[in-house]
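Customer escalation, tier 2.

The customer says the design service returned an amino acid string that "doesn't look like it belongs to this structure." They asked us to rerun it and document both sides in this ticket. The original structure tokens are below, unchanged.
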């Protein structure tokens, strides 16, 4: 009888502790989600207003880009150096290296510099700043309430999820993205519930405040039922998107390194970089600057006339424009440009391999290039379902995972920590940041190659 009473006491203690923990995080994540949803909604509305204000200018808006980039660099250097770059990378770095502490000055500076960059035609996105704004608000709140380091980390991750959910319009994918983007190969289940609630709260708040989202339900526009030949084409598409992602990662990271080595001060680089983007815009047109949402919509359209101006090199030029904008000091995210690159490369691939399913492959590219550049295949698959409908789920999962593997141990976010190997043939250290990883073949694989070389050498003799 005594043992039964002790067992019941342990069980009651456990369930009570779990109940209070769940209640605590339901309350906290709801509050933080509502606050972030409201602030990011303000950011999105300012962004829309600024884009609509371009018509008031007596000249083409992108002529302001060199001056806007200089001002963006000055504001960042002067008031919030940690607001530099594309947002999400800085948040990941803060979580791994700075106990999730984010300076409050990042919030207004990131909002202003991102709006300034996009208004003047910089090729950046709005989701990275939203994540940084969300994480910054969560960090400030946790500091005010004197949270422990562990609780602060949880709340900041909730902030990332809430920011992404508000911008994407995909609360489940946004919540998973906030968890999956931190460590490659690991999802922190202890933060799963708070992230979901923060994402839903932020998304709902944004909708109540008037934010409208665009969704594309493929079920009503084309047949994407299971088909063995289509599956084979999707496998090829996954390989293709993996290579596209490798190009994107390499171009953006190497572009930043090359610009950094140029012997000019940051303001000169910003000005001349802006002039170069203006010159490229005059040559190739305006569809490669700014957010590019119209081109993304065209790539996903069912009407051939809408995507007639999408060429094989469209995604390549967008990659170059984005790399230049970020390298010379533009402020903004990379995910929206990656959506553009994925959708247009998918449209091109579909036109080559399966003209009757162009929209399907554009949608697969939309999520697969995100999956492989950010190492988030699960969030990207869920995003496909939330944006495009359930019929695309099996193909999106296949394409996203293949592209994720093919892109290798690389990332657009160099502070991501690696917790898995993408091939058992490789030797690398788990637990390192992506930027510090050294990769080589396993010893037994090297031995196999040596044996093969010796055999070939003998045959030649």
């Amino acid at each position: 009888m005594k043992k039964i009473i002790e067992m019941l006491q342990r069980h009651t203690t456990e369930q009570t502790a779990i109940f209070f923990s769940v209640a605590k995080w339901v309350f906290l994540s709801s509050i933080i989600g509502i606050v972030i949803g409201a602030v990011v909604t303000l950011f999105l509305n300012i962004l829309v207003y600024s884009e609509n204000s371009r018509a008031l200018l007596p000249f083409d808006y992108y002529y302001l880009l060199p001056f806007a980039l200089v001002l963006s660099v000055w504001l960042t250097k002067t008031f919030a150096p940690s607001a530099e770059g594309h947002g999400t990378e800085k948040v990941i770095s803060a979580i791994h290296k700075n106990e999730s502490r984010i300076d409050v000055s990042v919030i207004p500076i990131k909002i202003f510099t991102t709006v300034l960059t996009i208004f003047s035609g910089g090729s950046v996105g709005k989701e990275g700043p939203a994540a940084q704004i969300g994480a910054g608000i969560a960090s400030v709140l946790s500091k005010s309430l004197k949270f422990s380091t562990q609780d602060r980390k949880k709340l900041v991750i909730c902030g990332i999820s809430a920011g992404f959910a508000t911008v994407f319009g995909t609360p489940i994918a946004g919540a998973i993205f906030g968890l999956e983007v931190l460590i490659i190969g690991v999802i922190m289940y202890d933060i799963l519930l708070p992230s979901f609630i923060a994402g839903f709260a932020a998304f709902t708040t944004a909708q109540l405040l008037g934010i409208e989202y665009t969704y594309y339900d493929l079920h009503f526009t084309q047949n994407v039922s299971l088909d063995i030949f289509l599956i084979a084409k999707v496998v090829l598409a996954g390989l293709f998107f993996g290579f596209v992602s490798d190009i994107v990662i390499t171009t953006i990271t190497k572009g930043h390194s090359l610009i950094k080595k140029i012997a000019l001060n940051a303001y000169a680089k910003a000005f001349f970089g802006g002039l170069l983007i203006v010159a490229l815009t005059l040559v190739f047109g305006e569809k490669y600057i700014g957010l590019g949402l119209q081109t993304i919509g065209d790539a996903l359209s069912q009407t051939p006339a809408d995507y007639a101006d999408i060429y094989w090199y469209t995604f390549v030029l967008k990659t170059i424009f984005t790399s230049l904008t970020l390298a010379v000091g533009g402020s903004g995210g990379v995910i929206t440009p990656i959506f553009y690159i994925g959708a247009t490369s998918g449209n091109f691939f579909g036109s080559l391999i399966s003209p009757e399913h162009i929209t399907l492959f554009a949608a697969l590219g939309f999520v697969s290039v995100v999956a492989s550049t950010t190492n988030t295949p699960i969030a990207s698959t869920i995003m496909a379902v939330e944006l495009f409908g359930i019929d695309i789920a099996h193909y999106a999962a296949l394409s996203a995972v293949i592209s994720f593997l093919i892109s290798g141990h690389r990332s657009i976010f160099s502070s991501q920590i690696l917790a898995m190997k993408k091939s058992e043939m490789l030797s690398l250290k788990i637990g390192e940041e992506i930027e510090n990883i050294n990769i080589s073949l396993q010893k037994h694989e090297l031995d196999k190659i040596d044996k093969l070389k010796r055999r070939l050498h003998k045959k030649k003799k």
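Tier 2 assessment: The sequence is consistent with the input. The radius of gyration is 23 Å. The chain has a mean pLDDT of 87. Sent an explanation to the customer and offered a walkthrough call.
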